[in-house]
């Protein structure tokens, strides 16, 4: 395989080429854009091995880019880019953030998530009966919450959402990408400077007060948390609602038993897997993966979406079944780089989905499913919009 396919024949299924690759072998040869011959892991066990085995590195000076990066000159690594570090360097940042994103903290934030959801649904009801669910609900819910958690001004959400979209858009021009890069750094640098002058009781405020990180590190950490914190959740929520509307029997089961929502969230995370490109690791010594020898220095890119559809791990994987146990899915990654905010994301999805379905029992698509625009050129998959409607009165 020479490139990661992104086009989908079904909006909810991984590209067919990835499934065929997995059926042929759980790990197979992959040609990276820089000419390096490495591997792509598509089988569940193979992906889990690469994610969790410490003999695979995430260091930026070792891994190969999965996508051509010649469209813009942006540094591979910035100070504080903990997503491109291995322990023990990575551990410094992980320890600073772990206590901020625990299950306990997510539970403490649940009432605030409910307040935000209900307020957005009130606005939807006033705007309706036809709205874009993404812009009206699924995007502002995690964006507003992440701004409050981090201590960033939500008043500038149009700016950072636009910049984030552009930076995640593989088809964006060099000019637009550079402009959004500069804008995002300026937005976060301004916010962090303000915290030096006036301390705040939020994640970034506490990091500033700790003195553990310099401002360059703080900007990078804030960027990672902000972009990952709203992009993945908003697209999972939007695409999840789309999937439920297209699987009415599953939607009916969830409406009949709201207690099903926890397993529903895990199944939607598995079934949809919005992180459809990467991640990448490089072997620092020879490692056997699913019976295949990966030599030291070779990089392995992974398809989390293909792994989550592996029939060896998940029976009837192409069937959306909210009652199944999807525990063990790899949508949040794994190993030392397991998603920091996974508990908060689960809470947002659980509360956001429950509130929406309760408020709008007749919710349905306002356009044919084939007309819903898909984010096929984006690093994080989903929809560009989701027009919905409901019965009034």
TrEMBL record:
Keywords: Heme, Iron, Metal-binding, Monooxygenase, Oxidoreductase. InterPro entries: Cyt_P450, Cyt_P450_B, Cyt_P450_sf. One of its GO terms (molecular function) is monooxygenase activity. It holds the Pfam family p450. Gene3D superfamilies: Cytochrome P450. CDD domains: CYP105-like (cd11030). Belongs to the cytochrome P450 family. This is Cytochrome P450. It comes from Umezawaea endophytica.
